[in-house]
Write a structure and sequence with these properties.
There is one protein chain. The protein has helices at residues 3-19, 31-41, 56-66, 82-91, 109-117, 129-144, 151-164, 213-218, 266-276, and strands spanning 22-27, 47-53, 70-74, 100-105, 122-124, 170-175, 178-183, 189-193, 196-200, 205-208, 225-229, 232-235, 239-244, 250-254, 261-263. With 278 residues, the protein is of the alpha/beta class. It folds into two domains: 3-164, 3-Layer(aba) Sandwich (Rossmann fold), CATH 3.40.50; 170-276, OB fold (Dihydrolipoamide Acetyltransferase, E2P) (Beta Barrel). Strands 7-6-10-9-8-12-11 form a seven-stranded antiparallel sheet, with no helix packed on it. A five-stranded parallel sheet has the order 2-1-3-4-5, sandwiched between helices. A hairpin with a 2-residue loop joins β8 and β9 (196-200). The longest helix has 17 residues, at 3-19.
Length: 278
């Protein structure tokens, strides 16, 4: 974005903040759910829906470009879900200020307990008008008190989810019309493309029964499996070689039969240097 356009956006944001306008983004993979929530929000004169998205990846782009005050996000979505979105926001150096996050969930008792434990706001589907008004009032109070964001509460939520999620020792892999059980430590890496997760071991590769990388990662040992790129989850014990790449970036050569080279995202390069003392 050009400097002039950026300055104009900042001036507009300051003006809206002074007038009490709440910029909101609605993220849900169901079009009717997005439309319903957007409709309910329009009943509040001080709320402006500035963007909508159907998954976490779209939400990341919208948050970076529009800098909303609050994001209403569905917990369960294909690709990048609501929890995965928060994890990306916390890890992303490009997001200078995390907006207020309000989760929407369809009676997921575990999710509700996790949100309540960490003082994270949530709405149960179907969304109640009174409950929505209460959530907006909470956002208004935080904005009036100049609370920068609920980053600490979100970080606490990620820790709670990681601690309470069961770690699996066996993984199911579909390969040549067979359902195979694989020891988790034998998984070299997993990748996602076109909504399908491929899992690679030394002996074979196949399709995972998980729908998102975030869902798979949540059930594996966080000290062993590392999300080096939004499309790749690797087992650090199966890194064969670190390959310097352009502009101070790296690729990781894995010890599978194809010696696959996996890119390390810019956001994860710092952790790689710390992990291997580069």
């Amino acid at each position: 974005m050009k400097e002039g356009a950026s300055s104009e956006r900042n001036i507009t944001a300051r003006s809206d903040a002074m007038s009490g306008t709440i910029h909101a983004i609605v993220v849900d993979d169901e079009p009717l759910a997005r439309e319903e929530l957007s409709f309910l929000l329009r009943a509040h004169p001080d709320v402006q829906v500035v963007g909508t998205g159907h998954n976490g990846l779209e939400a990341l782009e919208l948050i970076q470009s529009l800098e909303p005050d609050v994001v209403f996000v569905d917990v369960a979505m294909p690709g990048l879900d609501g929890i995965g979105l928060v994890r990306q926001l916390i890890d992303s150096p490009e997001i200078s200020k995390i907006p207020h996050i309000i989760f929407a969930t369809a009676y997921d008792q575990y999710a509700v307990q996790a949100f309540e434990l960490n003082a994270i706001d949530y709405l149960l589907k179907p969304i109640d008008k009174v409950r929505l008004a209460q959530s907006l009032q909470r956002v208004r109070r935080q904005m009036e008190n100049d609370t920068s964001s609920n980053t600490e509460a979100l970080q606490s939520l990620m820790k709670t989810i990681k601690e309470q999620s069961p770690q699996q020792s066996k993984l199911l892999v579909r390969c040549n019309q067979h359902l195979l059980l694989v020891d988790a430590h034998d998984l070299i890496y997993a990748s996602i493309e076109g909504g399908l997760i491929t899992m690679v071991t030394k002996d074979f590769e196949g399709e995972s029964n998980y729908k998102t990388i975030e869902e798979l990662q949540a059930h594996l040992d966080p000290n062993t499996f590392w999300r080096v790129h939004r499309s790749y989850l690797i087992n650090i014990n199966h890194i064969k070689e670190v390959v310097p790449w352009f502009k101070s970036s790296y690729q990781l050569k894995m010890d599978d039969r194809k010696a696959t080279e996996i890119p390390v995202s810019r956001a994860q390069t710092k952790r790689l240097r710390e992990l291997l003392n580069l």
